[in-house]
Amino acid sequence: MSRPQQVARPIVRSLRQATASTTATCHSRPIAIRTFSSTPSRKDETTTTTSTPAEPSPGADAQKKASPYPSMIKQGSEEQLSQMLSPELGSRRRRAALATTGSVPFEQLPYQCFQEARKVLAQDRAEKVAKILAETAKIQRLEAADASTFRGGEAFKQKRLESLREHVERLKILADINDPMVKRRFEDGQGDMNKPIYRYLAHRKWCAMERKIILQRIEQFHIVPDLLPKFEPTMDVKMMFRGYKTPPGSILDSRITETAPTLRMQVFDKGERLFSVVVLDADVPDAESDSFKKRLHFLATNIPWGPAQDSLPLTRLGGGGGDGGESAASGPELGALAVPWLPAFAQKGAPYHRMTIFILQHADNAPLDAAKLQALYDGQGREGFSLKSFRDKFGLDPVGFTMFRTVWDENTADVMARHGIPGADLEFKQQRVMSLKPPRAARGWEARRQKPKFRHLWKYTKRIKGLKYKRGSL
Known about the structure:
It is built from 14 helices and 10 strands. The strands form 2 sheets. A 6-stranded mixed beta sheet has the order 3-10-9-5-6-8. Helices cover about 35% and strands about 15% of the residues. The model is unreliable at about 20-75 and about 320-330 (pLDDT under 50). Helix 5 packs antiparallel against helix 6. The relative contact order is 0.07. It is extended. The protein has helices at about 5-25, 60-65, 80, 90-100, 110-145, 155-175, 180-185, 195-220, 225, 370-375, 385-395, 410-420, 445-450, 460; strands spanning about 235-240, 245, 250, 260-265, 275-285, 290-305, 310-315, 335-340, 355-360, 395-405. Strand 1 and strand 2 (about 245) form a beta hairpin. It has about 475 residues and is α+β, with helices and mostly antiparallel strands. It is found in: Mitochondrion. InterPro entries: PEBP, PEBP-like_sf, PEBP_euk. Belongs to the phosphatidylethanolamine-binding protein family. Mitochondrion-specific ribosomal protein mL38 subfamily. This is Large ribosomal subunit protein mL38. Its main location: mitochondrion.
């Protein structure tokens, strides 16, 4: 809303109220309030009045006070609209509409255009459902047919069946994609992700912005090719530390990352699968070789996951708490812990460390041996961990990614002391590289002013480290 509209609307409302009060006084009759309207009001429109009780109920007064704009949805400034209902319900205009329509069900809102549109959508959905039934019957007949009757044999039959099943899935999405109830449930976070329409809407929303941000972080921080030669995320992964959302690539305090995060993961295809979670530090300084190496901070495997699940607290995977107490044991419904959580840390003077979180899907949903992984990578096996080697050795496919960064701060030494991590007293300094160029003779402005009469200018030309020039020395 523009600023002129914000200034003019209160004035217009005041004039309307004054006109309404004058009219009510002159004619001695109540003014009807149009709660719902599908067309704009006109001056020559006849207003129908209804009889009202002499004494209004206290509940009606409370409802009127709670909703400052009971008659129209578009009234009020942006600040006033933003205070209506929960921000999780969508835009400010939608929250204002929900706050002013009372207990009327969404599908029964008495807007003529809305109801007519629902009739058209219902007819279109019926046509799509009829096509789905016809295609499903065709699939059943094709499954019962003998593969020898086809020119291409069994390969042609399976290819044809796969094409028909994909067509049925597309029809299911097209049947519900324009339904306002479906869109409302999805915006409110109440959609059933086992249904293809909600998975499609979630994937479209993720590709609109969040996937682009993840791809930008992968390119910006050189995740490819530093950790993997090629990587394209296909699932949505978010992380939360201590209940707070963390944007990918943020620099976090070491006290916050002392405990393992909670991952919000969303897949967009049907069926259950097994995941492994790897947390990797890609920037561990190696002073001996004057380079960097990698360190494994967390590894969990055999995590069953489906489209209806969305939250994975790593602290529940048997030892990810990092608080020194007895950790929760990992069960078959949560997966198996191979390498417990190691807090993120960086020595003083070192550049920021890229703490990467990868989600890897198992091939053919085959579980891995957690005891074998613990023997390979726990303890000394953390140092020099290679994600590419781990992927190739166990046949895993990276599908999800997020990251954060860590630097030395005022809490890093305490965190390292609590977890017995050495190196808190180590400080990295940049090595001074001396120039190999030979001394350059004076030239230009400096060469023309080497005589004693320009002594007052020598302070601008003789500032050389280690040499002192005094009056009368030359």
